[in-house]
Amino acid sequence: MENLVVIFVGLTTLAIMVQVGVLAGIFASVKKLAFNTERLRMEMEQKIDPAVADFREVLGDAKQVLHNLHTAAENFAGISETVKYQVERVNAVLEDTTDRARDQIARADEVVTDAIEKMEATSAIVQQNVLAPIREVSALIRGVSGGLHFLFAGRKNQVDAVHQDEELFI
Fold first, then answer.
1. Which of 100, 117, 142, 144 is 20 to 30 A (C-alpha) from 133?
2. Is position 38 within any domain?
3. CB neighbours (10 Å) of residue 158?
4. Which DSSP symbol is given to 156?
5. Overall pTM surpassing 0.70 (yes/no)
6. What's the number of domains the chain is made of?
7. What angle (nearest 5°) sits at the alpha carbon of residue 122, between those of residues 138 and 110?
8. 6 lies in a domain?
């Protein structure tokens, strides 16, 4: 059994040595990685510092622009409120004017309708009382004129009458 303990101790020693080697390799890799990381950080810092300075300058300008935009927005809000108030006033005036115009148009329509009705009534009265007797007198005069013309004109030749009728037909 003694041989077994020696083999076991030897194997344990060998395992520990392998572990120490692996740990030393990991340590070296980590140290190399830390060195490379530090070098990379320094390079990045050298490259980024000017960009950060520029960014800070741009950020200051952006703050000024934002302040100006905020002031402009406040001015715009005030102007919008004033315009809204003025539009409401104009709208009220337009509504009042429209109502008054509507009333005046209704009154004018009533006056025109009344005038048209009176003209129609007057026309009817003129038709009945003036034109109807004038037509009757005119018809009477035409009748008397036709009768007198018949009496004094005499008879025309029958052939001339037929010839005249043919001319009217053609």
1. 117
2. yes
3. 8
4. P
5. no
6. 1
7. 155
8. yes
pLDDT tens track, the chain, 170 positions:
788 899 999 999 999 999 999 999 999 999 999 999 999 999 888 888 888 888 888 888 899 999 999 999 999 999 999 999 999 999 999 999 999 999 999 999 999 999 999 999 888 888 888 888 888 888 899 989 888 888 887 655 555 555 565 666 55
Provide the residue type at 47 as one letter.
Answer: K
Element (H, E) at 132: helix 132-153
Domain that holds residue 36: 2-129
List phi, psi (to 5°) of 156: -95, 165
> Is 37 within a domain?
yes
**What's the CA gap between 18 and 49, in Å, rounded?**
45
